[in-house]
């Protein structure tokens, strides 16, 4: 196939942080190709600093600066794989130069920075999407269909999510996600993004009325969040909680309880098996006679696929870009809206933590004062 006749979307990658998965997905996709990779510094004229060749994946061009890649007229879309603190500058610049933009999550440090990116994309008529892979897996659509089933699931009442993984000492010392100047959100931005996003997904992207950090937030010496949780209340009887951490054993749990049924996925962020992703549903369960158990038992549903969810994401993004580039279709505004709402809730959790809502009492006097205050309030209420 002649290059000028190649219908695939040409990707450029800014940065070299954890690009292997996305690079392989682009290589595996029939709708995209990896055209260029850029790093800000070079070890040699042929290889960007920090770039480790990905087995089975090659880029046509390797650039020693981000500007050079953005100046390449052949690049259709850019994946921004930089520390979060640098997303706003380079993603917005890519958009202003007419490149469609996919940004690693979290896409920004706060809503203001994300809005800068989104407005640049809207102003240039290019597609924006953050790289939250699980939203593109066919299992996600199947789970959503169950949550929307009024007979089987009913009205949503509770949502509880947990994304945790115990990192190495080297990670805790050197990874960009523990550095306040590179990614000040820490575990909240990395693992918490999935938790908050899944809750909003279940709520049809309604925003919560209140956001309250749970006690027990853990910080590193630089003040970056290593572990935290929060409660999101949506009004009515719908309440949700989440926990995210760099310090606990691996979990990727999602539990949604409705008035008639429940749903659970033990690996909603990343399936245990790339070829077969499962989830469990239960409807109308009740105690057996004599409390000998309860029934019916949860039912396993398996969704078989022939590719990884990251490939589904690349193909969906490429399809949107192709529609804009070649068919005059408008960018899909669903994706920036999802990102902005998720970022807003992240901001609210961070604000609650900063105000002390997620901090534990660090001394006995503080704990005694809290107990004393609670006793006085109860006494006055009884009067």
Per CATH, the architecture of the largest domain is 2-Layer Sandwich
Helix content: 25-40%
Could you tell me how far the N terminus lies from the C terminus, measured between alpha carbons in angstroms?
A: 85 Å
Largest sheet: number of strands, sense, barrel closure: 9 strands, mixed
**How much strand?**
15-25%
Radius of gyration, in Å, reads: 23 Å
Order of helices and strands: EHEEHEHEHEHEHHEEEEEEEEEEHHH
| SS content category | alpha/beta
Average pLDDT taken over every residue: 89
Can you walk through the features of this model?
This protein is α/β, with parallel strands linked by helices and 383 residues long. Helices cover 34% and strands 23% of the residues. The strands form three sheets. Strands 7, 8, 9, 10, 11, 12, 13, 14 and 17 form a nine-stranded mixed β-sheet that branches. Strands 3-2-1-4-5-6 form a six-stranded parallel β-sheet, with helices on both faces. It is globular and about 70 Å long. The termini are far apart.
């Amino acid at each position: 196939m002649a290059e000028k006749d190649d219908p695939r979307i040409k990707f450029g990658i800014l940065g070299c942080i954890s690009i292997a998965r996305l690079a392989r997905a682009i290589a595996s996709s029939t709708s995209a190709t990896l055209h260029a990779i850029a790093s800000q510094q070079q070890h040699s004229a042929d290889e960007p600093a920090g770039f480790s060749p990905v087995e089975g994946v090659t880029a046509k061009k390797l650039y020693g600066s981000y500007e050079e890649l953005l100046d390449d007229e052949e690049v259709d879309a850019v994946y921004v794989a930089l520390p979060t603190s640098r997303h706003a500058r380079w993603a917005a610049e890519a958009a202003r130069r007419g490149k469609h933009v996919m940004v690693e999550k979290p896409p920004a440090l706060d809503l203001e920075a994300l809005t800068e990116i989104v407005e640049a994309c809207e102003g240039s008529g290019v597609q924006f999407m953050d790289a939250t892979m699980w939203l593109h897996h066919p299992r996600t659509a199947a789970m959503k269909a169950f949550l929307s089933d009024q007979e089987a699931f009913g009205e949503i009442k509770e949502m509880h999510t947990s994304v945790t993984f115990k990192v190495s000492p080297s990670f805790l010392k050197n990874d960009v996600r523990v550095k306040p100047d590179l990614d000040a959100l820490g575990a909240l931005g990395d693992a918490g993004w999935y938790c908050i996003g899944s809750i909003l997904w279940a709520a049809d992207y309604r925003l919560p009325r209140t956001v309250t950090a749970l006690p027990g937030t853990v910080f590193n010496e630089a003040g970056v969040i290593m572990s935290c949780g929060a409660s999101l209340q949506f009004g009515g009887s719908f309440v949700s909680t989440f926990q995210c951490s760099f310090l606990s054993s691996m979990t990727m749990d999602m539990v949604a309880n409705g008035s008639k049924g429940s749903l659970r996925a033990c690996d909603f962020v990343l399936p245990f098996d790339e070829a077969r992703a499962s989830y469990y549903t239960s409807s109308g369960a009740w105690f057996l006679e004599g409390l000998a158990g309860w029934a019916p038992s949860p039912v396993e549903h398996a969704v078989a696929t022939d590719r990884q969810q990251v490939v589904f994401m690349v193909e969906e993004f490429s399809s949107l870009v192709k529609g804009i580039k070649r068919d005059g279709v408008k960018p899909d505004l669903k994706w920036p809206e999802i990102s902005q709402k998720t970022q807003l809730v992240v901001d609210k959790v961070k604000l609650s933590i900063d105000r002390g809502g997620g901090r534990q009492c660090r001394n006995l006097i503080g704990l005694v004062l809290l107990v004393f205050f609670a006793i006085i309030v109860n006494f006055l209420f009884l009067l």
